[in-house]
């Protein structure tokens, strides 16, 4: 068992954003979080990353309650890639990736060989080794996103949480990034909008609508024509792709 | 690695020598010019390293007036630049500066309350009043920005509101007081002056700044983690609320001490961190010492200029720093327009 959420309720003011959400991520698998805009995906990811506390319900990491864990202990285990993370400090890629070692170091401890290894392996996994000395402002959108993923990997997480990481990327970088995440040896939870990409890369899907889970399971169970019509309000046909044998969605006009 | 450390140490030593040289030059400038060598021997004599006979008048001027002034100027420059760098990082705003939380406005209100309204009945000094005013403004901002939970934008807006309120109060008191001389005195104090500072001021500012610099250096990595915002810092395991409150309190303490001592000297805290970033990059373990040293040099140089530009007359230090600062500020504005 990896991350498990049990009956989460979260409100902003009087508005209930998440209403009794439960899910369970399988170790080493990729869980896709789907839902229309405003369905609560980002809020749910923030709760799962321990950045906000649910008003009720419980999140557990391998049976330990997230609310009883220290911030730094959570950060040593769960890495979070935000949707809009920008900076006006012109850090080098290597400095950004090194930030990932923050939770593993105390205030006065020196940089260790283990830190170096984690950073190098994160850079190489994200394909950013060649860009290590580039300034943040000189990176393209795809490179920034990969640098964020490298930073998250440098945290040596067991769980990786990503909020719409393929936003604003071209198709090559979208597919490249999804493949990168799918091949990582960590449990990942990824919020996304592209249903075909979700079907291709995710092992498991959870669909949110107005703060409630309306479907969950494997892509072929979840992505049905009825669900597409009811939740996403689109007319579509779902077929099994002859190329990758995963569900493929044809949107009809 | 060892070469790297040796290089950094050499650079640090060199820049401290530049600070010392600037202080030496500053001591030499004035109605009675004093050669650099005399100042050097005056210091080494005092330390017991040498026993060179010196002109008594020179020695008196060095020890009683100019050295303390130059040292306080160096520390104030260092403190303002350091505070500015921390504000810019924490608030993620390139235009943030030490007074962004309303501290100088609060200090001015505290000062006029003492000087013009006569609060404290002559027992409380102008500095104490200014310090109290500065912290009143700081707490007002903390309250308005919802303690530690408010984000950067909210904190900046609260600071703007506080500055407006306290500046308006100051203006109200000054314009209704009807005493032109008092108003002039307050104006002069607001623009900043190292005129009255002696060794007790040096002792206070060096202790406050020493502690402040140490705390900030301990938080250098935490400040790096704020690069992508509060939430990203939190996701990296930073206790954001605690870090913000400690860093805000330390910068407020440093800034309030400086403002209450020498007035609100502008632009150092805004300009120097940007200049330092160009030189050593955005990582705080290098940026913070660089700010402290560059700020010290800049302020001592500005103090020299304030006495040297017009013979027989001392310009308010704030006027000099702004004259240098405004063109620099324009460049920063211009640069930050381009990339987006």
TrEMBL record, chain A:
The keyword rRNA-binding does not apply. One of its GO terms (molecular function) is ATP binding. The keyword Electron transport does not apply. Residues 3-235 form the ABC transporter domain. Keywords: ATP-binding, Nucleotide-binding, Transport. Coiled coil: none annotated. It comes from the Bacteria. Pfam families: ABC_tran. Belongs to the ABC transporter superfamily. This is ABC transporter ATP-binding protein. It comes from Neorhizobium lilium.
């Amino acid at each position: 068992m990896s991350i498990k959420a049990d009956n989460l309720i979260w409100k902003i003011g009087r508005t209930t954003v998440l209403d009794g959400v439960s899910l369970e991520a399988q170790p080493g698998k990729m869980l896709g979080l789907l839902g229309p805009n405003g369905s609560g995906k980002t809020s749910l990811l923030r709760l799962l990353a321990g950045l906000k506390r649910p008003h009720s319900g419980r999140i557990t990491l391998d049976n330990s309650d997230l609310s009883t864990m220290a911030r730094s202990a959570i950060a040593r285990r769960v890495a979070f890639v935000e949707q809009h993370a920008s900076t006006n400090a012109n850090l080098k890629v290597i400095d950004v990736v090194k930030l990932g070692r923050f939770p593993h170091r105390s205030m006065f401890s020196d940089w260790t060989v283990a830190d170096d290894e984690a950073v190098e392996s994160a850079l190489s996994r994200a394909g950013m080794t060649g860009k290590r000395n580039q300034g943040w402002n000189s990176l393209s959108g795809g490179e920034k996103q990969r640098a964020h993923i490298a930073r998250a990997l440098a945290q040596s997480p067991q769980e990786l949480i990503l909020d719409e990481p393929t936003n604003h990327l071209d198709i090559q970088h979208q597919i490249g990034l999804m493949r990168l995440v799918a091949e990582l040896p960590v449990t990942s939870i990824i919020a996304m909008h592209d249903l075909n990409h979700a079907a291709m890369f995710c092992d498991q899907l959870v669909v949110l609508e107005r703060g409630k889970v309306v479907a969950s399971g494997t892509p072929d169970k979840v992505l049905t024509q009825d669900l597409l019509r009811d939740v996403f309000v689109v007319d579509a046909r779902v077929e099994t792709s002859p190329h990758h044998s995963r569900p493929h969605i044809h949107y009809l006009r | 690695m060892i070469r790297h450390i040796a290089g950094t140490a050499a650079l640090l030593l060199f820049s401290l020598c530049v600070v010392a040289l600037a202080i030496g030059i500053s001591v030499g400038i004035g109605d009675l010019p004093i050669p650099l060598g005399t100042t050097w021997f005056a210091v080494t004599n005092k330390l017991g390293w040498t026993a060179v006979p010196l002109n008594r008048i020179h020695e008196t001027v060095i020890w009683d007036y100019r050295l303390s002034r130059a040292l306080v100027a160096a520390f104030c420059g260092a403190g303002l630049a350091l505070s500015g760098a921390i504000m810019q990082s924490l608030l993620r705003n390139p235009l943030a500066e030490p007074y962004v939380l309303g501290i100088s406005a609060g200090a001015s209100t505290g000062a006029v309350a003492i000087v013009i309204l006569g609060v404290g009945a002559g027992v409380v000094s102008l500095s104490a009043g200014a310090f109290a005013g500065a912290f009143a403004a700081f707490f007002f901002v903390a309250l308005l920005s919802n303690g530690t939970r408010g984000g950067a934008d909210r904190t900046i807006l609260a600071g703007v509101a506080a500055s407006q309120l306290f500046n308006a109060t100051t203006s109200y008191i000054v314009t209704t007081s009807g005493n032109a001389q008092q108003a002039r005195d307050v104006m002069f104090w607001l623009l900043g002056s190292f005129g009255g500072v002696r060794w007790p001021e040096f002792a206070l500012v060096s202790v406050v700044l020493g502690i402040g610099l140490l705390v900030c250096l301990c938080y250098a990595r935490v400040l790096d983690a704020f690069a992508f915002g509060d939430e990203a810092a939190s996701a990296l395991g930073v206790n954001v609320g605690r870090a913000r409150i400690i860093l805000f309190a330390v910068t407020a303490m440093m800034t309030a001490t400086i403002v209450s001592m020498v007035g609100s000297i502008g632009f150092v805290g805004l300009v120097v961190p940007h200049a330092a970033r160009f030189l050593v990059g955005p990582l705080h373990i290098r940026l913070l010492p660089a700010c402290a040293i560059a700020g010290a040099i800049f302020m001592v140089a500005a103090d020299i200029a304030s006495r040297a530009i017009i013979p027989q007359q001392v310009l308010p230090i704030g006027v000099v720093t702004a004259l240098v600062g405004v063109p620099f500020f324009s460049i920063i504005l211009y640069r930050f327009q381009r990339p987006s």
